[in-house]
Design goal:
By secondary structure, this protein is mainly α. It contains 20 helices and no strands. The protein is globular, with a radius of gyration of 24 Å. The termini are far apart.
């Protein structure tokens, strides 16, 4: 072989070796490629699962509405029985499916691999979905958003197990955030919820995963459901001078009420007193008692069943609503949340917030009613979940009220501070302690 050929041969050998190394590092069999494929597959599946779950929940709500209108006082008997049955089934077969689902995802970050066999296993989330639908059909004041977060995290975990790639806590965050985005059609709210609530601190790699999962899941959900707006195109706005007066009141009132809900929920779920001791000793009887409270309020008012979406939207668009709706929905949601059955509090909390905004409308008769109701929703929601940025963005995206952004931010931050005077611990993080992986 001639001397000039040797460098070419050496160069050619080096190029092939580098190509093979690159193929091993980034090719179809590499961990990096399979990880990205797992996120892609998981996000697509989340969009499909969130859409199917939303359609099923809406159908279940319609079934109960027809039933309650036809037999107005029948839920006084059936709702307590359904509450008791659901808690019995949950405790016996899928104990990790109880409650919202968001505390489970928070707890799962400590050991993601083990969580896919417990907190976010397919068995757990299948039970969660079916039992949540049964709770909706029973008249419980529950939403589908929290369960969607747990379902989405489980779907993302399953895609990683199928492709045999390591599972990190950041991936569960991405899945849960994509679930929020797909449930409300609110991509920015999903991102902020992941940063504020699901993730303990900001990490760039977490945010990039979340964005990728949200975009893909959102596109799938929109292709199936259309580019809808959750509460409709409201476009509320408010003059700055009026906002300076109303925002602090909405923030303080909503924050205190939201903090009270969080305090009572944590006290009844994790505290030690006579009532909680009895509820732990007799969980089925306690669930039936909670169902009787929900059934009694629902039969008396006819408005507090389910998510409260219809009543909340009516108040947003300016329909006059009874002043007792907010307190009544508050009690119905609290009784449902502490009963021990699966179901979320996102949508019911927005309905309670709308009721608080409805109470404030009478104090400012000359101000835009839609804007006041939305500020009440922001204040109460921020007070309950202690995620002010999420509260603002989720109401901005679900009502397209971007002209109200500054008053909403002021309300949310004031509400977050006011809530801490009543309940120092964040609701979801406090509840997640009961799901800690040992």
């Amino acid at each position: 072989m001639s001397e000039p050929d040797r460098p070419q041969s050496g160069s050619r050998t080096w190029t092939v070796a580098r190509y093979r190394a690159l193929l091993r590092a980034r090719g179809p069999r590499s961990v990096r490629f399979r990880t990205r494929l797992a996120i892609l597959m998981g996000a697509v599946a989340i969009g499909l699962a969130a859409t199917l779950f939303a359609l099923a929940a809406d159908a279940a709500a319609e079934q109960f509405t027809d039933y309650a209108e036809r037999y107005r006082y029948a839920p006084l008997v059936t709702t307590p029985l359904i509450f008791a049955a659901l808690v019995w089934v949950t405790r016996r077969y899928v104990p990790l499916a109880r409650g919202s689902g968001i505390p489970q995802v928070i707890a799962a970050q400590a050991n993601p691999e083990q969580a896919t066999r417990s907190l976010v296993s397919i068995r757990t989330v299948l039970g969660k979905a079916l039992l949540t639908l049964a709770a909706v059909m029973g008249g419980a004041s529950v939403g589908r958003e929290g369960p969607t977060v747990q379902i989405a995290a489980a779907v993302m975990g399953l895609s990683h197990r199928l492709l045999r790639v390591p599972l990190r806590g950041a991936v569960l965050i991405a899945g849960g955030a994509a679930g929020v985005a797909a449930a409300f059609n609110t991509p920015l709210a999903g991102l902020l919820f992941a940063i504020e609530e699901l993730a303990s601190a900001y990490e760039q790699r977490v945010t990039l995963l979340v964005i990728a999962a949200i975009v893909i899941a959102g596109m799938v959900a929109q292709s199936l459901q259309g580019d809808y707006i959750y509460f409709g195109l409201i476009g509320a706005h408010m003059p700055l001078a009026t906002a300076l007066l109303i925002a602090p009141i909405a923030g303080i009132f909503g924050g205190l009420a939201g903090g009270l809900f969080a305090r009572l929920t944590l006290m009844l779920a994790t505290g030690r007193n006579r009532l909680t001791d009895w509820s732990k000793a007799q969980p089925i009887a306690f669930a039936a008692a909670c169902g009787l409270v929900v059934g009694g309020i629902g039969c008396a008012t006819g408005l507090t069943w389910g998510t409260g979406y219809g009543a909340a939207r009516a108040m947003i668009v300016g329909v006059d609503a009874p002043l007792w709706f907010g307190p009544a929905k508050f009690l119905a949601t609290l009784a449902t949340a502490v009963a021990g059955l699966p179901g979320g509090i996102f949508a019911p909390s927005l309905a309670v917030g709308a009721g608080i905004g409805n109470l404030l409308r009478g104090l400012f008769p000359g101000s835009p009613s839609s804007a006041i109701v939305i500020l009440g929703m922001v204040g109460y929601f921020a007070g309950v979940v202690r995620a002010p940025l999420t509260a603002v963005i989720i109401l901005s995206e679900t009502t397209v009220s971007r002209g109200l952004m500054l008053p909403m931010f002021a309300t949310a931050f004031i509400a977050d501070s006011a809530s801490q005077f009543v309940c120092r611990e964040k609701l979801y993080h406090g509840l997640s302690k009961s799901f800690a992986i040992r």
